[in-house]
Specification:
The protein is mainly β and about 80 residues long. About 10% of the residues lie in helices and about 50% in strands. It has a five-stranded mixed β-sheet. This is DUF3850 domain-containing protein.
Length: about 80
């Protein structure tokens, strides 16, 4: 299991925290695997700073099959860690 620290914009952060958003779409620039934890750190692009908010989510499924997902990207199903 690996923990991946990732920036997330406030509107998406809120949706993850409330449970409405149960997936993450990311560039496949890390070796994501089922069972890994995403440490999503709220980042405000207006101030260009972290807000201090964070949440952990476990990766439960990975989908990166082309042509459904663009090359170099991955969709991960996530749930509370």
């Amino acid at each position: 299991m690996t923990t991946h620290e990732l920036k997330i914009h406030p509107k998406y952060f809120s949706a993850v925290v409330t449970g409405i958003k149960t997936f993450e779409v990311r560039k496949k620039d890390q070796d994501y695997k089922v069972g890994d934890v995403l440490l999503l750190k709220e980042f405000d692009p207006v101030t260009n700073k972290y807000t201090g908010g964070y949440v952990g989510r476990e990766v439960t499924y990975i989908f990166d099959e082309q042509p459904f997902v663009p090359e170099g990207y991955v969709i991960m199903a996530i749930e509370p860690a």
